[in-house]
Amino acid sequence: TYQIGRDEGCDICIRHPTIGRWHAELVGTPQGHWFLTDRASKNGTFLKRAGAWKRIRQDFVDPREIIRFAGLELSLATAAASREVVLSRRLGRLLGGASDEEEGLSGPVKRNPETGAPMVREPQS
Q: ∠14-19-20 over CA atoms, to 5°?
């Protein structure tokens, strides 16, 4: 289980004013899936479903999927590359991907050349 929030004790510490101290929780299943739970946060956790943002309480997420934690959008695969995110050592080793040369959870992390923001890696066919 990994804690997500603004508190420095969280495994995924998101330094953004709209994020709750203990905003959400992420659990890896034995089958290799990720289960995300919002911890009754004030500003919510959202997933894009059928082309629209949907506030969730609990749902499975893909590492490449964009998640909106209150006012910040990121994916698990690119979280390590975000300037507003600090990962715990145990989660940082799992997710990786702090630069273009390093491997992330779903492969190399790429940055938008104009903004420098992390981009989701397209699945290879």
A: 110
pLDDT tens digits for range 109-125: 444 555 444 444 333 33
Q: What is the pLDDT of residues 41-64, one digit of tens each?
A: 999 999 988 889 999 999 998 878
Spatial neighbors of 83 by CB under 8 A, at least 6 apart, are none
Helix (H) or strand (E) holding 94: helix 89-95
Q: Which has the minimum average pLDDT: 13-17, 34-38, 87-91, 112-116?
A: 112-116
57 with 68: CB under 8 angstroms?
no
Is residue 74 within 8 A of residue 45, CB to CB? The reply is no
Q: Where are the beta strands (DSSP E) in 1-125?
A: 2-5, 12-14, 24-28, 34-38, 45-49, 52-55, 58-61, 67-69, 72-74, 85-87, 103-104, 107-108, 110-111, 118-119
Question: Which position has the higher pLDDT, 87 or 30?
Answer: 30
